[in-house]
């Protein structure tokens, strides 16, 4: 086993780190406070290749591997979780799904602008009545004689929904068939029949925009079906396997930022005549933070490696992705909690980013499959039982 990264991997990591520290970190608190979508930064990230890292150059991306994606995501998330959420949805939930299942013409049309950062993509699976139980969706696509579909229904919690140009949508086309009756569609948000609801006010990742969307007699053309009719649930699950590695990377970046701030503070801050880092209770917390952070980092890279292998040789990486997401998100929650505690009043104050890290960490345990769903996926795959 070789723990060294390639020159290309180190190069995208350095590009992401430089942009994150110079352009994102200085404005992250302000965008969070205003709940404002960082459109200019996202466009620039696209120009740097960060919005379609694994997308081949012919479709507007950087043409790099899954490890590169993880390394870049960690750097962006260490500066601001919300930026990394937008990056993650663009890269994996949107581009990754289309790369695997779309035709060459569909990729040229719908992946290219998103990977290049000139437009934003989104992924619509969740509904007001169905989150974890994704097959219980009510959004309907009814096939027309010419091969197109008419779509009606609502989707909720759509990350980047308020600004997305294109959306990868999952709708029920044959309710009798359950999971095998779901089809994936490409939605153009500028067309008639597409509506946006209000932007959700959120606890964390406040600079990433989230809303409900609704379709009223929205017409999908026959060449806007992604994959085959009835293949939508498998597409969604496969895309989420990749997405979960993105969320794990985000959790690692966020936790690393909280950890590094804590090390610096424990060296500087004095109490009872000494640095607080010399107290055993602080040391125990720091040691546990370090172990959880390193374990999360390694599991996330291993999941990315497994994904790369699956892309090259076939097969799935659902367990590796779920193990990485579960471990990294619960570790990020724990690490940011300890970081706030060690910072005391300063951890609770908006003068420092710790309270933001703490608020942002929570979502990593919820979206793209809750911790409970990750445990279900892991245990089902391990036991073969349902
Ligand atoms: N890859 C490919 N196929 C898969 C798969 C995967 N990872 N997981 C399941 N499938 C296939 C199964 O093999 C099965 O196929 P067959 O019909 O041929 O046998 C089919 O899909 C149905 O599978 P299950 O019976 O296991 O389905 P289920 O109804 O029991 O659901 C679940 C499984 C794991 C609970 C799934 O519903 C799930 O992951 N739920 C969570 C959904 C989720 O993550 N939502 C997040 C929303 S997106 C988001 O957060 C976006 C954002 O904006 C950031």
Automatic annotation (TrEMBL):
Residues 122-217 form the Acyl-CoA oxidase/dehydrogenase middle domain. It comes from the Bacteria. Pfam families: Acyl-CoA_dh_1, Acyl-CoA_dh_M, Acyl-CoA_dh_N. Residues 230-381 form the Acyl-CoA dehydrogenase/oxidase C-terminal domain. Keywords: FAD, Flavoprotein, Oxidoreductase. InterPro entries: Acyl-CoA_DH_CS, Acyl-CoA_Oxase/DH_mid-dom, Acyl-CoA_Oxase/DH_mid-dom_sf, AcylCo_DH-like_C, AcylCo_DH/oxidase_C, AcylCoA_DH/ox_N, AcylCoA_DH/ox_N_sf, AcylCoA_DH/oxidase_NM_dom_sf. Residues 6-117 form the Acyl-CoA dehydrogenase/oxidase N-terminal domain. Its cofactor is FAD. The keyword Nucleotide-binding does not apply. Belongs to the acyl-CoA dehydrogenase family. SUPFAM superfamilies: Acyl-CoA dehydrogenase C-terminal domain-like (SSF47203), Acyl-CoA dehydrogenase NM domain-like (SSF56645). This is Acyl-CoA dehydrogenase family protein. It comes from Tahibacter harae.
